[in-house]
């Protein structure tokens, strides 16, 4: 394996995986940080929607101006039942909600960030192997 990793194709692939993993990790961190800066409020689960393996919840929540908003949000954390109170984060642009998410939705960011972090460390190690100088014959 180490011999093929030291080839020009192996070096290219190792570099490409490293760049992809670091770029993906940066996107996950940026998305998580952006979502934490959104306004938050308490909402009530109206209904639970299941489509295949994915589960969503329809949540009604009040905005800062007093109006009520209903949104269908992805459920990545614990199972929520109708009538349950949840914290909702939302992003307003010109007085309209453009994005919303459950506040306990951070698990997806942690999982994706952890996986990409492990991939980045592995790719970094592969690059060290790929670019290490070849031993000189004696």
Could you explain how this protein is built, in words?
- A five-stranded antiparallel β-sheet has the order 3-2-1-4-5, with no helix packed on it.
- Helix 2 runs antiparallel to helix 3 (106-131).
- It has helices at 2-5, 8-36, 106-131; strands at 39-51, 54-62, 68-74, 85-93, 96-102.
- With 138 residues, the chain is α+β, with helices and mostly antiparallel strands.
- The model has no long low-confidence stretch (mean pLDDT 85).
Which tags fit this structure?
43% helix; 5-stranded antiparallel beta sheet; alpha+beta; 138 residues
Short structural description:
With 138 residues, the protein is an alpha+beta fold. The chain has three helices and five strands, in the order ααβββββα.
Biggest sheet, open or closed, and with what strands and sense?
Answer: 5 strands, antiparallel
Beta content: 25-35%
Low-confidence runs: none
In whole angstroms, how far apart are the ends?
Answer: 23 Å
Secondary structure: helix percent: 40-55%
The shape, in one word, is: elongated
Strand order in the sheet with the most strands? 3-2-1-4-5
**Strands, total number:** 5
Radius of gyration (CA) equals 22 Å
Helix count, DSSP H or I runs of 4 or more residues: 3
Mean pLDDT: 85
Structural class: alpha+beta
H/E element string? Answer: HHEEEEEH
């Amino acid at each position: 394996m180490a011999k093929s990793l030291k080839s020009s194709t192996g070096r290219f692939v190792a570099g490409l995986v490293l760049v992809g993993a670091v770029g993906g990790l940066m996107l996950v961190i940026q998305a998580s940080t952006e979502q934490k800066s959104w306004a938050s409020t308490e909402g009530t689960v109206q209904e639970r929607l299941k489509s295949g393996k994915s589960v969503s919840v329809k949540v009604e929540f009040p905005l800062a101006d007093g109006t009520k908003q209903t949104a269908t949000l992805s459920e990545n954390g614990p199972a929520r039942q109708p009538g349950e109170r949840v914290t909702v984060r939302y992003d307003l642009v010109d007085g309209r909600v453009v994005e919303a998410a459950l506040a306990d939705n951070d698990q997806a960011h942690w999982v994706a960030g952890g996986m990409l972090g492990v991939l980045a460390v592995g790719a970094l190690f592969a690059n060290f192997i790929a670019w290490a100088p070849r031993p000189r014959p004696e």
